[in-house]
Amino acid sequence: xxxxxxxxxxxxxxxxxxxIIQPFKSFGYENRKDELFWDGxxxxxxxxxxxxxxxxxxxxxxxxxxxxxxxxxGVPITSNQINLSLARYRSSEATLKICDELGIxxxxxxxxxxxxxxxxxxxxxxxxxxxxxxxxxxxxGTAPILNALKDIAEKxxxxxxxxxxxxxxxxxxxxxxxxxxxxMARDNFGAMGWALTEDEVFQLEAASAAxxxxxxxxxxxx
Length: 222
Fold this sequence. Notes:
Blueprint: H1 2-5, E1 13-14, H2 34-46, E2 53-56, H3 60-71, E3 77-83, H4 93-102, E4 105-109, H5 131-135, H6 138-141, H7 143-156, H8 160-170, E5 174-176, H9 182-189, H10 198-209
Parallel strand pairs: 1-2, 2-3, 3-4, 4-5
Helix pairs in contact: 3-4, 7-8, 7-10
């Protein structure tokens, strides 16, 4: 991988998922290989192939186990990449806390909840198919968040996506927003260089608590 990337060391090497896909679990048989994957990360780090190692979609329990296993070999976990946004906050709070305690940086994918928090989708203006089918149930369920985002965006002279992305930064996370074109990328950059106030963060999180949570992708952080 390093050779294909044209680097001597890979800056960050992450596991994408815990070993949760166990097809025979319903029959009482599991064969999880998380420890083997952690050993692999450690070997890559200790042999000098990578500068940092991280994990993805790890909840508090799995993260503590991984941290314990890797720390015994002198390998720090740098990052944990998780689904985090105002529409996916309640289920991620415990993970954020553990990451903060362990000094692990959170990388937030779906900071705009797959476009839901961009303020553009509604019953009248749905996204293209098939996204229109999967997102339909969230239009009304996340209305409190969108209303709060629009209110703050108007007062701050920012866009709705910029406010939503800035919130993830206020939680200490590094957001990974998507962008289909240059204009979207430029708008995303506008989330930097300023900060929401404590009152604004409180307003957004109160709205989040009153809203339906965005999809967990079929699994929970454990």
